[in-house]
Design a protein that fits this description.
The protein has one helix and seven strands. It has about 120 residues and is mainly β. The chain has a six-stranded antiparallel barrel.
Length: about 120
C-alpha cells in the first residue's frame, strides 16, 4: 500500500535540527543544534498522530506521543535529527516540545518522499 502524501496534505510546518559537535577552547566537546536548511527555514509535512490500536502498541514500546510524518525526501533529515512543530517555536517550554526520530523510510526507495516515525523527547530530570 503506497504511503505517499499529496502536496495539499503536507500543511504542518516543522523545524528540523541536527546535532553539531565542536571542540571548545578548553578542549571539551560541545553539542549544539543547527537547522541544516538554514536559520528559520521550515519544511512542510503531513503530520498524523497515532490513534486506535496503535496507541496500545506504542504504550507497550514506551513511546511518548508518537506520530508519523510524511515529507519530501531529503538526506539532511537523519535518525539523529530532532523535530519541532513551527507553532511551538518560541514557547516558554519549547525545549520539552521536541520530537526525536525513531525511524526513517525512503518510500519505495525512490527519493521522492520519506516517512518518519517520531516520538516526544523526555525532558531531563
Amino acid at each position: 500500500m503506497p504511503k505517499y502524501a499529496n502536496a495539499g496534505e503536507m500543511r504542518t510546518p516543522i523545524l528540523v535540527e541536527n546535532p553539531v559537535r565542536e571542540a571548545t577552547s578548553n578542549g571539551y566537546i560541545a553539542e549544539t543544534w543547527k537547522n541544516p536548511f538554514g536559520d528559520g527555514v521550515t519544511l512542510r509535512a503531513k503530520w498524523v498522530n497515532i490513534h486506535g490500536t496503535e496507541v496500545f502498541e506504542a504504550m507497550g514500546l514506551d513511546l511518548r506521543e508518537p506520530a508519523t510524518l510524511t515529507l519530501r525526501y531529503t538526506d539532511k533529515v537523519t535518525i539523529y535529527s530532532r523535530i519541532l512543530k513551527a507553532a511551538d517555536i518560541g514557547k516558554p517550554d519549547q525545549a520539552e516540545r521536541y520530537y526525536e526520530v525513531i525511524s526513517i523510510d525512503d518510500i519505495d526507495e525512490r527519493h521522492a518522499q520519506m516517512e518518519l516515525k517520531i516520538q516526544r523527547k523526555r525532558s531531563a530530570p
